[in-house]
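User: Can you model how magnesium ion sits in this protein?
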Amino acid sequence: MASATDARHAQKEASEQNFDYMFKILIIGNSSVGKTSFLFRYADDAFTPAFVSTVGIDFKVKTIFRQDKRIKLQIWDTAGQERYRTITTAYYRGAMGFILMYDITNEESFNAVQDWSTQIKTYSWDNAQVLLVGNKCDMEDERVVSSERGRQLADHLGFEFFEASAKDNINVKQTFERLVDVICEKMSESLDTADPAVTGAKQGPQLSDQQAPPRQDCAC
Ligand code: GDP
Ligand code: MG
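Assistant: Here's the modeled complex, given as structure tokens:
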């Protein structure tokens, strides 16, 4: 006879398929800042020191619990197109959150943050949330971008900021969890303002519009 523990276990397994929300998250930034490594570290808890080939990966899925909700994350990694700045607009569609990454040992990648931010603002949903991440913080000796400059740029762009290391597993989980929390906060704010477009409470005005009498200003 199956024990209560077995039953609970089976129930838990079945519920792995269920989730309350699904968020599409994108990791963007210059080539070789560590985007693919960051995703592998988070999704698989692994780091491959050799240059990670990005070919063939579209996204990874990870389900987490935040504030009693089961949230399924679909995390997309660019397949190297960032090298040529040819990320298609379709890639941005439906994204609720972005990790915009630079490398603290690479000035050029930091200088590109503004451009990436403009791309996000141009192609994504207005309410999409962005976290700025300075990766490779394990390479202190080769640092060229100070934490202060990173923080100032993040403030200027209105993003939250983390320094992280995919290699040493510093602030990787924290980055994703904070991003998810910020998305959830934004969602509940939108619901609180009771915007009919968000809540679906559109019967009143719309119905009466449809049933309005024919226009009375006909001259014939
Ligand atoms: P992507 O082009 O942005 O996807 O970058 P990759 O993930 O392919 O990483 C580029 C290179 O940086 C590889 O050689 C990685 O091993 C290395 N790398 C990535 N993250 C880190 C990190 O946090 N610290 C260090 N020291 N190296 C990293
Ligand atoms: Mg890559």
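A couple of observations from the model: Confidence is low (pLDDT under 50) at residues 198-220. Residues 31-37, 49, 51-52, 54, 135-136, 138-139, 165-167 surround guanosine-5'-diphosphate (ligand 1) (CB under 6 Å).
User: Helpful, thanks.
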